[in-house]
Please model this.
Amino acid sequence: MNKDNLFDGDSLKAQFSRIVYKRLISRKWITYADVMADYLPKPMYSQISSYPKEYGELRKAFRDVYNAIVKEFGEGCIEVQGNNRNRKFRYVGENDNPLAAMINARAIKDLKKYWEFCQDSAGFMPETWLEYYLADCQDLISIKTKKKRGEQVISSSVDRHQTNIEYLPMLYESIKNHQPLSIDYKPYEEEKKTLIFHPHYLKEYNGRWHLFGYTEEPEPKEGINLALDRIVNKPREIYDKDKKFVCAPKRFYEAFFNNIVGVSHQEGNYYGVIHVRAHSFYIFKLMETKKLHKSQETFLPFEEHGDGVYGEFTIDVEVNNEFIGRILQMGEGLEIVTPKEVRVIFMERVEKMAELYKNDHQ
Model:
């Protein structure tokens, strides 16, 4: 932190200095109360005397900003009226941004921090995105050099070498530019089909990328999910002045993902509140700290109950394959308690799994 820069850092004084300066260069009369009201949330602010510590730092900030401007442009550039807490100030100088050098110095420092974070967080991004957006940039060279030297400090556990992941930049651009696409798509165990597709949303789940959008054939439908690894050829842009891009309804995907784990909806699936029991303290804490879904809430703490030691939580979701997979991933550590119809779904899945291990293949 540069001690000579009034605006640098997160101290109370620095925060007040930024507010004071912003207020002053508006060229309106300002008071200590105006600045305090900007600093504190409206419901909290009553009067300055309620915040003696803050008021002390506020006065110092006013003094330092005032002196810095007057030093550069003379006494007459700031008018002062009143006294003590009723004092008010107004900037009338010719220069609209008298402390621009200090403000810009802080902005440059913040930009440098952001740039460093972007370089370090490259470990989260598929390499195809970096190659596309940073092509011929010094940033890409720096990122590769850091990785080669073993200096990368952020990474993801997700494998970034999936089929067709190189299409991500092009699909992202198509979403941003409202560009319809022709996509050859082959679901498992089905024939290849060509879709006229209006891309809206990209989502990664469990290491696999999915493209969501609107398709015209075989019937117009919103929220179609295309897994990238099942796209047969590179998607082709459609240039037809009569082909108007169909946008997603407002907040459609917010609602689409609201009640599911993962990315899939299946017609006829149960949707509602499900009680899940954890049979070990480790699993209970694991599920408590890494929730399956935002609706998850602890229903019973992990402790001795009348019929055993366990804890329970509720979750309000659709029972899709991703939800089933996440529960079964914990083995005997988790049990569906209610409702009965969901319990039966899991019982049948477990029975089929058990059948596979009853025969000895040796």
Q: What stands out?
A: Residues 52-73 form the longest helix (22 residues). The mean pLDDT is 85.
